Amino acid sequence: MSAPIAKATTKAQSQTAPASAPASSQTGLSAPPAARAHARDLSFEADLRNGLEGELRTDAFTRGRYATDASIYQIMPKAVAYPKHARDLAAALQIAGQHGVPVVVRGGGTSQNGQPLGRGLILDLSRHFNAITQYDPEARRVTVQPGMVLNTLNDRLRKDGLFFPVEPSTASRCTIGG
Ligand SMILES: Cc1cc2nc3c(=O)[nH]c(=O)nc-3n(C[C@H](O)[C@H](O)[C@H](O)COP(=O)(O)OP(=O)(O)OC[C@H]3O[C@@H](n4cnc5c(N)ncnc54)[C@H](O)[C@@H]3O)c2cc1C
């Protein structure tokens, strides 16, 4: 996806500056924002791949899917990770910090104002952080992991005549963390 943009830039630069000097220093041109947004950060990706047990996706298709929510906004992330456990979360934050990459946590991605979008690392917790960790129907208390989908929680609570009282129309996809 980035190749045609990069080529177009090179061609434009070669037409406006002598071949002997970097085009940007002669013309003030730099890669257009779209090309910068699609650029890969291979050393960051390698550190994540080595440091995480959960899956890491850096292909354009996945990044494109996570570049949107239910709004009109679009921001291409560098990478999308699906942390498997707390150790993965800690490692992802540490690696991102070392590389100066911002982190955004994401659930169902149903926000309407671009809240779960970002240029850095997206952590999708809906895949592995979706369990009930404590449940006491008598006391009407439940503790869940943040990636649990609202309807999944209410399906379980319904068996005891209980209900978590939030009713967005996105209940089949939105998570408690979101
Ligand atoms: C058609 C439609 C109807 C809607 N109706 C309602 C409604 O009736 N009521 C309502 O309140 N909202 C509604 N919404 C908005 C949206 O569905 C809700 O806000 C929903 O709760 C978002 O959950 P999510 O899991 O999709 O969050 P996401 O969109 O993935 O994330 C939302 C925000 O929470 C953050 N976040 C997500 N997970 C975590 C985490 N584990 N830790 C820290 N931060 C986290 C994200 O970074 C982001 O800032 C609607 C949206 C649509 C498209």
TrEMBL record:
Q: Which residues form the FAD-binding PCMH-type domain?
A: 73-178
The protein's UniProt keywords, in alphabetical order, are: FAD, Flavoprotein
Disulfide bond as UniProt keyword: no
Gene3D superfamilies xrefs: 3.30.465.10
By its UniProt entry, which InterPro entries does this protein fall under? FAD-bd_PCMH, FAD-bd_PCMH-like_sf, FAD-bd_PCMH_sub2, Oxid_FAD_bind_N
Record's keyword annotation contains Flavoprotein: yes
Q: Which domain of life is it from?
A: Bacteria
**Where does this protein have compositionally biased stretches of type Low complexity?**
1-27
Residues annotated as region Disordered?
A: 1-38
Listed SUPFAM superfamilies: FAD-binding/transporter-associated domain-like (SSF56176)
Please state which protein family the record places this protein in. Belongs to the FAD-binding oxidoreductase/transferase type 4 family.
The identity of this protein, by name, is FAD-binding oxidoreductase
Biological source species: Paracoccus cavernae
